[in-house]
Amino acid sequence: MDTESTLRDLCKTYGPIITFRIGSSTSIFIAGHAVAHEALIQKGAAFSHRPGPVTPSCIFDNSYLDVGSSSGKRWTLIRRNIASVVLIPSRYKAFGGARRWVLQVLNDSLANHVKSGEPVPMLDRFGYAIFCLLLYLCFGEALDGKIIREIMETEKGKLARFNLLGVFALFPRLGKFVFKKNWNEMLELRQKQLSVLLPLIEASRERRGNIKQDKIDDTSFVSYINSLFDLEIKEEGGRKLANREIATLISEVLDAGSDTTTTTFEWIMAHLVKNPEMQEKVYSEVVGVSGLTEEIKEEDLEKMSYLRGVVLEGLRLHPPIHFLLPRVVTEDIVVSGYLIPKDARVNFLVAEFGWDPKVWKDPMEFKPERFMAGDEHEEFDLTSTKELKMMPFSAGRRICPGYGLGTLHLEYFLANVIRDYKWTPVEGDDVDMTEKMEFACVMKHSLKVNLTPRIK
Ligand code: HEM
């Protein structure tokens, strides 16, 4: 039995909050909706510090970014900045040109598969497309395919060793001694990462030259890198970020936005392949709103309530992240009657919230209708401000800054690929829904499907 299901069972037996004490350190896991809502939304300010590295790359550089947020300042600055680029809908919608380009990249690769008659490995195809898109968001331009592959390879290599990062951060000397081979592999990956990213950053910096800050209003297109060039670190005399630090931050967005979106997409496609009638419903809705061949616009997606239900249901049943980035409380606080002592590490059983039978009827079934008109979850609020029912993007001050962008990407690509192709299982393949925990919770056996173009 794995740690997560053990924790789930303990919560079922002993209540919504489980405390472990080892020596002087306290770890707390929260599974109750009301407790989590109060902790993250009402008392979120007390949960503001994070121990250990904030991102995988932080353990490499002894820089401003390295700080495990002991003052919270690093996080606040970086967090506000990323939010200013990806959280404002009118601003991320301005990346429409990039989405169209990536859709073309995806379509070309799917068309090649159809020609070859081979089943399509979904994770790989869609994963590459999302990477292209995130790199566009970071650099403000379409990068060369070879460079994209190189960056993707190093980021994947780092994420594959994600579990060891905590060890290196908490026990730097011992960790590097005991896991010497892994540490050397990580250093090699960091070198590779820098060798690709630094020249790109340098070229962007040169291009930007003396141009003053982009006119930032709600609708302007702001690439992430330009927002980083403009950041000033007040605590260090107003200095600007160094190129290595910028590489780290770009890598953070790539890691946070790629596997999460790709994995959710794969799970959703798996359900739609298993349930062809649901796939046909999505198809009819998309064609009804956008027509058979016209471009699917962002405003069209807002009219597709079944598609939205499919995406929310995918996020509920298969949240890619099962534990949040760890928190430490800054003062003794009482949450829903439970005392959480200062310095306790707190985490949340993310998946458990979406699977709770007290909140969700038939929680383990994939039912997009539960989010549609007439259902009690019709007005579902992904940010959990009023009530917490599930939290695939977390909740409160630290909610994923990419939640709007992530759902838009899922809706946009699903609408397009389902309108263009009928997706069917490979003969003899049952579509295995077994989970496997990596950086994200992925399908143990990656989805392979056959595609038939809808319009010949
Ligand atoms: C389906 C897609 C996605 C899911 C399910 C998801 C989920 C999450 C979760 C659970 C967290 C942890 C929050 C916490 O600890 O409270 C997180 C953090 C983060 N996500 Fe996402 N995410 C997605 C897509 C994206 C995208 C597209 C981007 C950016 C382009 C992004 C950027 C980030 C960043 C930068 C953080 C760290 C925030 C911080 O340090 O406070 N995510 N995400």
TrEMBL record:
Q: Which GO terms describe its molecular function?
A: heme binding; iron ion binding; oxidoreductase activity, acting on paired donors, with incorporation or reduction of molecular oxygen, NAD(P)H as one donor, and incorporation of one atom of oxygen
Binding-site list for heme: 400
Task: Give the InterPro entries listed for this entry.
Answer: Cyt_P450, Cyt_P450_CS, Cyt_P450_E_grp-I, Cyt_P450_sf, Plant_metabolite_P450s
Q: Where is the signal peptide, in residue numbers?
A: none
Q: Which domain of life does the UniProt lineage start with?
A: Eukaryota
What Pfam families does UniProt report for this protein, alphabetically? p450 (PF00067)
Q: Provide this UniProt record's keywords sorted from A to Z.
A: Heme, Iron, Membrane, Metal-binding, Monooxygenase, Oxidoreductase, Transmembrane, Transmembrane helix
Membrane topology for this entry? Single-pass membrane protein
Q: Which GO terms describe its cellular component?
A: membrane
Reported cofactor(s): heme
Q: Where in the cell is it found?
A: Membrane
Looking up PANTHER family in the UniProt record yields:
CYTOCHROME P450 89A2-RELATED, FLAVONOID 3'-MONOOXYGENASE-RELATED
Q: Which family does it belong to?
A: Belongs to the cytochrome P450 family.
Q: What is this protein called?
A: Cytochrome P450
Lineage at the top is:
Eukaryota, Viridiplantae, Streptophyta, Embryophyta, Tracheophyta
